[in-house]
Amino acid sequence: MKHNKAHYVKLTQALHVMHECFAPSMDPVSHKDVAEDVIFNEEREFYTVVLEKGDNVATVANVRVHNDVAEAPLVATGFEYQRQGMCKVLMGEIEKWLRECGVERLVLPSVQSALKTWTSSSMGFETMTEDEKADLLIDYDYLLDFQDTVMCQKQLVLKKNKKKKKKNVKCHSGSSSDGSTISHEDQGSKVAMSTFICGR
Q1: Who's near 25: CB < 8 A, 6+ residues apart?
Q2: How are beta strands 105-111 and 126-127 bridged, if at all?
Q3: Structure pTM?
Q4: How far does CA 29 lie from the centroid of its chain?
Q5: Which of 104, 170, 107, 179 has its CA nearest to residue 137?
Q6: Would strands 180-186 and 149-155 be described as parallel, antiparallel, or unpaired?
Q7: CB distance 99 to 197 below 8 Å
Q8: Is 16 helix (H, G, I), strand (E, B) or coil?
């Protein structure tokens, strides 16, 4: 499928941010770079969500929805924009969007160096027990997981308010060629969040 040029540029910038923060990881089966495959291979069904400041991609996350559970296996902020609250802004918008889709829980694998940040009161995640992780991988055996990471989770809907489980949840945001944009102003600094669907 052909890429819209502006769309392709943003996805390429998103991949650059990923490679800035994480060493390239090769899939043992496909022998492809995992980050590149997640961003550009539409068959993986990931959303690529970016937070931009000016014309630059500051923070990027890859999100995939599995009925009432969503995963965000890759989240990265460019070195220039770290420690400015960019990741918190992006994750906050993603969580609102997922709630609107009926998603009840968000999971992600954290490297040890970032675990304290993800499990802080600001981000609100908690580490999963080995039993919880095993149950999750039984239900969703195609979740992306990485060696030497800790699986974390965040309940997006309080259990007492949970509605009947939804089947075949579909999230849509904007067009597949241009992405959708949400403006966010924080302390006088305006940033924009765009969602790109399945690398298209």
Answers
A1: 33, 34, 35, 146
A2: unpaired
A3: 0.81
A4: 23
A5: 107
A6: unpaired
A7: no
A8: helix
> How far is the CA of 9 from the CAs of 39, 55, 146, in angstroms?
12, 11, 27
Is the CB of residue 156 less than 8 Å from the CB of residue 170? no
Q: How many CB atoms lie within 10 A of CB 129?
A: 10
Q: Under a CB-based contact definition with an 8 Å cutoff, are residues 195 and 47 in contact? A: yes
C-alpha span between 60 and 194 (Å, rounded): 10
Tokens at 129, concatenated: 């027990």
Q: Is 66 helix (H, G, I), strand (E, B) or coil?
A: strand
Task: Examine the pLDDT at 5 and tell me if it is beyond 90.
Answer: no
Going from the C-alpha of 170 to that of each of 14, 84, 99, 102, 118, the distances in angstroms are 23, 32, 12, 9, 26
- pLDDT tens figures, 21-43: 998 888 877 788 999 999 998 88
Q: How far is C-alpha 170 from the chain's CA centre?
A: 16
98 phi/psi in degrees, rounded to 5: -65, -40
Residue found under tokens 């043992």: 28
Q: How far apart are CA 140 and CA 6, in angstroms?
A: 34
